[in-house]
Specification:
Layout lengths: L1 E10 L2 E11 L4 E5 L6 H9 L6 E6 L2 E2 L2 H5 L1 E4 L11 H11 L4 H14 L15 H13 L5 E5 L7 H16 L4 E4 L3 H7 L2 E6 L2 E7 H6 L5 E7 L12 E5 L2 E5 L5 H11 L1 E8 L3 H9 L1
Helix pairs in contact: 3-4, 3-5
Length: about 290
């Protein structure tokens, strides 16, 4: 169990974190989402000991996190830290050795990871000769090579093509299944929703929502009424209750304070109703509401 408890951090007059708290359980994948500058990277750096918090604490299994604990973590920072002139295989093995692996252990783990991440054919290439997406895969291999007990990944899917995303997702799911707490940040909310057990939403240094994905989607008052009307007369939603978002023929109603039958009658008069039903919001919609 990794616990982030009431973290505060300021840079001069700027508040970076204002009481951030959440927990990542063993065998749980936790998605940490927020706009640029919201505090995700600062939180992760404090977790990894790169920054010191002004107040608050990071704990593992109820005790303060130590340097030895962090040596067993796999960390992928926002700013990639690869040696551009070093060959791919040599680089991953080097970081394995830094994390206490023998030469044989590091070589075997590197070969396995490069195969999983479709990098075997680039093992002898210099990192600087790779595309940004392939450099991202190498950085991930560096974070995974020593079989970490905890994974902390800052935007691991950034710049990856769909095939690479699937390969990375498969690796992370395997680590979660093995009982590893996995914390990663991402702007790809559909991916977070698909992969994660729990989600934390941070805005301006404050946690504005944190729960399981299912609980966030099922909370009372968050249901959406989706209506699709083809060839609708302009302005057909005027006078209807609730918050209304129109996307072409699709209209989303939230906070409906009247009868949905009234909306159905208006839609029927407006045109051909192709869809009418209550839906739970996506993580993207929850995020927009939470940070508004």
């Amino acid at each position: 169990m990794i616990e982030i408890d009431d973290l505060h951090k300021r840079y001069g007059d700027k508040t970076a974190l204002a009481g951030v708290s959440f927990a990542v359980k063993p065998g749980e994948m936790f998605g940490f989402v927020g706009a640029n500058g919201a505090g995700k990277t600062t939180t992760m750096r404090i977790l990894m000991g790169v920054l010191a918090a002004d107040s608050g604490q990071v704990r593992r299994d109820g005790r303060p996190l130590t340097f030895e604990d962090r040596r067993k973590f796999g960390y992928m920072p926002e700013e990639r830290g690869l040696y551009q002139k070093m060959k791919v295989s040599e680089q991953v093995q080097y970081f394995g050795r830094l994390n206490g692996m023998s030469a044989a252990q590091a070589a075997k783990a590197t070969a396995d990871l490069l195969e999983r991440l479709s990098l075997t054919g680039r093992a002898g290439d210099e990192v600087g000769a790779l595309s940004l997406g392939n450099q991202q895969r190498v950085q991930l291999a560096v974070a995974l090579v020593h079989d970490p007990e905890v994974l902390v990944l800052d935007e691991p899917f950034s710049g990856l093509d769909p095939i690479a995303v699937d390969a990375l997702a498969e690796v992370l799911v395997e680590r979660r299944t093995a009982g590893v707490p996995v914390l990663f940040s991402s702007h790809q909310l559909d991916l977070v929703e698909r992969l994660c057990d729990s989600v934390g939403i941070i805005s301006a240094g404050r946690m504005v929502a944190s729960d399981t994905v299912e609980e966030l989607r099922a909370r009372e008052g968050r249901r959406l009424l989706k209506v699709v009307v083809r060839d609708a007369a302009p302005g057909w939603t005027a006078g209807l209750g609730g918050n209304i978002t129109e996307k072409g023929d699709e209209v989303l109603f939230t906070d409906v304070n009247g009868s949905d039958q009234e909306i159905l009658r208006a839609a029927t008069k407006a045109g051909t109703v192709e869809h009418f039903g209550w839906e739970r919001p996506t993580l993207t919609e929850i995020f927009r509401e939470a940070v508004a």
